[in-house]
Each structure stands twice: as structure tokens, then as C-alpha cells.
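Lab notebook, bench 4. Continuing the backlog of folding jobs that were queued last week. Each job is logged with the same field layout so the records can be merged later without manual cleanup. Today's entry covers NAD(P)H-binding protein, a 209-residue chain. Filled in by technician R.K.

JOB TYPE: sequence-to-structure
TARGET: NAD(P)H-binding protein
LENGTH: 209
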Amino acid sequence: MKVIVIGAHSSVGEFVVSKLMENGYTSCAVISDENQMDLMKKRGATEVVLYEERILPTLFNGYDAAIYLTGVNPKAKTGRTVMIDHESVIETVKEAEKQGVKRFVMMSAIMANEAAGDDSREIGAKEMPDELLRQSNLTYTIVQPGAFTDKPGNGKISAAETLDSNELEISHEDIAEVLVMSLETEAAFNKTFEVAEGDTVITKALSSL
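JOB STATUS: finished
OUTPUT FIELD FOLLOWS
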């Protein structure tokens, strides 16, 4: 399977690229800065592409699947506003569908359903592209992670449509593993779920969705 990674230049994206290589996938890392090219190649990317809006209509040609890391702007080196994120995801989903991508795995807003206070408006905006993806003809998986940590992954998680606590965490490495393992785990097809560190091996947790 050939997989394109949008947002590969993020902390999670670097782990995604490495884990795709470890699991025998051909990958294309889409980055925002040519200075990131060498790092992506070291991480194991088969191909590295510098994002430009003009390449979007052909970006997915020849690829079977996409992993999209929302909150990582493919167009800029810095963070993005929610509205830019919203528009970018919608553009990308539409083009992936047009260009024949079969699988689309998206890392969505952190615990989108647990938003509260001032954050709720922004999370709500981020739910809009999730809904577009659900309504597309793509076989999708939408993963909503807990708060990120830099600690090493241990390969164990909790995953469910809704998790009990809104103070859950997950390492960059483990969320990357979840995204990659979701590609071919049928129990994760056309599902939206929350994920955080836990006691269940990732493959088993995903198979039980």
C-alpha cells in the first residue's frame, strides 16, 4: 500500500513516517519547508514533496491511502487558525476522493467532543471537516487523541467512541502507531473514536472497536 502523509513535518508526523517504513509501506511525506526533506528521508519516507497549492490536484495520484494530521498546516511553517485548518482539510478530502484514494485516516481535534469553555468554539469548527469526511465516499477513520506527551510510547492504549475522562494523554509515538495500524484494521473502517494511553495493546484495542 502506498500512503501519503499530510503534515509529516510535525512531531507525530515524523513517527508516522518511521512506522510506515517499519511496516513495509511506501510513503510520501508532504512537508512545508524544503529544510525538512533530509529529516523525512532519514525517517524512511520513500518520497518527499514540498507542499504548494498548485500540486493539490495531482498530489494523490498513484496513492492508495492518506494520513492527514489536522492542526498541522501543510501551507506554512507555523500554526494555523481553525478556519484555515477547516478549509485545508475540506480541500484535501475532496481531492483525495477525486484522485481515487481508498483509505483516509485523519487525526482530528484533541478530544473534540470534550470541548469546554473558550475552546469549544474552535473545536466545533474542527468538527466540520470530520463531518465532510464521514459523508464522502472514502473509507475513513477519524482518530481523536488525548493531550500529547513527549514520553516514549509503550504500545498500549484505550480506544472507544467516547472515553470517560477529559484529562487523558497519549504519546506522539503511540498516536502515530494508532494512525498507521488503522490503515488496514477493518474494525476501524468508517469509525470515529477517541484514544489515550491505556492497558490494551494497540492492535487489540483497534480490533475491538
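OBSERVATION: The chain has a mean pLDDT of 87.
SIGNED: R.K.
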